[in-house]
Write a structure and sequence with these properties.
10 helices, TIM Barrel, globular, about 40% helix, 8-stranded parallel sheet, 8 strands, alpha/beta
């Protein structure tokens, strides 16, 4: 029995990290230890998104090595210097080789000013078409670009997905929900100064929320500028529980159920 299964069998809450870059180089020195720490904390499933064609192999190797790690294939909008149009054919080939849980991480980023928007839009739109073709959900990156993401989602209908690291308005949240999306919340809302995010986490429908770490990025307040890790997810869930006036078990059960429903996962 795995550590995660042992934890669950003792009646402790368990969690799905819906966005975790465990395959990133930042974990090369201690990936085994961080996976074990997450499993011991009840993080039974981790969705591992690719960010470029060259990251496919590392994501595949990570998902093969660690039980409960599931891949998503995609081309990230911030890596325009490495993407080429022919990588879209490589993405299709990767899907045919190993069907992923989702297409991602894809999207648009208007926070970084020197990223060419037309090129971002090209890769985003083409990957939405691929997701529709293969009937797969998508993992969306969308800093300061929610309206632009939604515009294309209304035109190219996909099987839902997750608005990763959601930080928009309640109205934008509702538009994503109408299109079949869940909203990803992670370490960013744990910061006491993150007033808008904390209001969203407290007030949006609980059945629309999933949890994520975005490890090694998006660290919670107690880490500061340090490296985030999937083992932090239960403590992130505890902050969400406190904001909503719930106990941790209720948050764990709801967010895990939401993720399972979104990706067609069976109970572990």
């Amino acid at each position: 029995m795995s550590q995660a299964s042992e934890t669950a069998s003792l009646g402790a809450p368990f969690f799905i990290d819906t966005h975790c870059h465990l395959a990133a180089a930042e974990f090369d020195a201690d990936r085994d230890a961080e996976f074990a720490r997450a499993a011991a904390a009840g993080v039974t499933t981790l969705i591992i998104p690719a960010v470029s064609r060259d990251s496919f192999a590392a994501v595949a190797a990570t998902c093969e090595r660690y039980p409960g790690c599931l891949p998503a294939w995609g081309l990230h909008p911030m890596l325009l210097d490495v993407h080429r149009p022919e990588h879209l054919a490589d993405l299709r080939a990767q899907i045919e080789t190993q069907r992923p849980l989702a297409i991602g991480e894809i999207g648009l980023d208007l926070f970084v000013r020197d990223l060419d928007y037309a090129t971002q839009e090209f890769f985003y739109v083409e990957q939405l078409k691929i997701a529709r073709e293969y009937d797969l959900p998508v993992l969306l990156h969308g800093r300061k670009a929610n309206d632009q993401l939604l515009k294309h989602l209304r035109r190219i209908r996909v099987r839902g997905g997750i608005a990763h690291a959601f930080n928009g308005s309640p109205q934008q949240a509702n538009e994503f929900i109408k299109l079949g999306f869940k909203l990803g919340f992670g370490g960013a809302f744990t910061w006491s100064r993150a007033n808008n995010l904390r209001r969203l986490a407290a007030n949006l429908p609980l059945d629309a929320i999933v949890l994520e770490t975005d490890s090694p990025d998006m660290p919670p307040e107690w880490i500061g500028r340090g490296r985030n890790a999937p083992g932090e997810l239960p403590r992130i869930a505890q902050v969400l529980a406190e904001l909503r006036g719930l106990d941790i078990d209720a948050v764990a059960e709801a967010t895990t159920r939401n993720a399972r429903e979104q990706f067609g996962l069976t109970a572990r």
